[in-house]
Predict the 3D structure of the following.
Amino acid sequence: MKYWFSDGAFRTIIRNSAYLGSGNVASALLGLLALSCAGKGMSPEMFGVLIVIQSYTKAISDFVKFQTWQFVVQFGTPALANKNPRRFRDVISFSFGLDIASGAVAVIGGMLLLPLLSKSLGLNAESFWLAVLYCTLIPSMTSSTPTGILRAVDRFDLIAVQQAAKPLLIAVGSVIAFFCHLGFAGFIITWYVSNLIGGTMFWWFAARELRRLNIHGALRPSLFEAARGIKGAWNFVWTTNIAHSIWAARNSCSTVLVGIILGPAAAGLFKIAMTFFDATGTPAKLLEKSFYPEIMRLDPRTKRPWLLGLKSAVLAGGIGILVALVVVVVGKPLISVVFGYKYLQAYDLIQIMLSAIVVSMVGFPQESLLFMAGKQRASLIAQALASALYILLLVLLSHAFGVRGSAFAYFAGQCLDVLFSLIPTLWVYRHRNLLGFSIPIESTK
C-alpha cells in the first residue's frame, strides 16, 4: 500500500474521493432524515406514491439525458492540459446545447406519458397534478455539463458542497412538512423547491470557475457548429446516451416498474432497500468520479492506467466488505428507528441485495477504462445485454415472489453487469498496444 500511495495519480483519486465523500456522507444522512419524515408523516401507500413520482421524473430524465459530463471530461480535460481554451470552450458550448435539447424533449415526453401511466402508478387526481408539477424539474435533472466542468478543472470540493446542500434543503423541508402536518402535498412541494435550488447551485459554481479561468462565452449553446471542430463528438455522446438510457432502464426505472407490478407500497419498500444499497455503494461512485478524469491524462497503451484501475478496484472491494458487514449489524435497528416497524420488511430485501455490493464496487473501473481506450461501444453492448436480462428477471421474479423477487433480480443484474463488462475490458487490455492515442499527456502529479 505504501508503494501504491507513492503514485501521484492514485493519491489524487483518493483526495478527490475524500472531497466527494464528505458531501456524500452528509447527503446520505440527510436523505435518510427526509425519507424518515416522509415515511412517518404519511401512510405506506402515500409514501409509496411520493417515491413513485420522484422515481418517475428521475427515470425520464435519466432515460433521455446525454452524459454531457463524460463528454466534457473526455474532450475537455486534454484541452485544458494542452492549454487550448478555445477547444475547451467549444466542448462546453456543445455540451450545454445537448443539455437544453434533451431537457426540452424529456419534460414534454414525461408530461405526455404521465396520463397513460397514472392509474398504474396509483395516482389520484390531486397526486396526478402534483406529479405534473414535479415533471418541470426534469430539465434541471438532465443537465450534467456543470458537473463535467467542475471535474475537468479539479474542483471536486465544490461538487461536495452542492451534494450536501441539496439534501440539506430537502431534509429541512421534510422536517417542516412533518411537524406542521402538511401531508403529501407539503412533502412534494418542499422536495420540488429544494431540488430546483440545488440544481441551480451547480450552474453558479461552474460559471464562476469559467470566469476564474478567463474562459468567456462557453455557456452559449451550440450544437452543430461546435461539434464540427470536435472529431468523434456525436459518436461519443450518442453511444454514452444509449448506454445511460440502458442504465436508467436497469436502475432508475426499477422502482417505477415495481410500483406498476406490485403497487406503491411495495415500491416504497423497494426504494428504502435501494437507498441503503446506494449508500453502501457510495465509495465506488466517489472513486469513479475522480478516477475517470485522472486516467484521461494517461496513455492507454501503457500499463499505468490499467494498474491504477486494479488498485482502485481492490481498494473499493475492501471498503465494500467493511460496509456490508456494518449494514448487516445496524441495518435492522436503523430501519426501525428511522422509518418505523411498518417498513421493517425492507431489511429482508437489503440482506438479499447486500451480496452484490462488493461485486459492483470491484467492477467500477471497467466502464471508465473502456471509455479511456475509445471502446465505449463495447461497454454499451455489455450493459445492454446485462440490462435486458435484468429487466426480464425483474418482471418474472416480481410476479413469482413479490417484492423479495425484485431484490433477487437486482442482485442478479448487478452481477451480470460486472461480468459482461469484464470480458471487453480484459480483451482491450491484452491488445492495448494497438490503441490509437492522439493527445499524449501524462499526469505530473
Q: What stands out?
A: The longest helix spans residues 85-121.
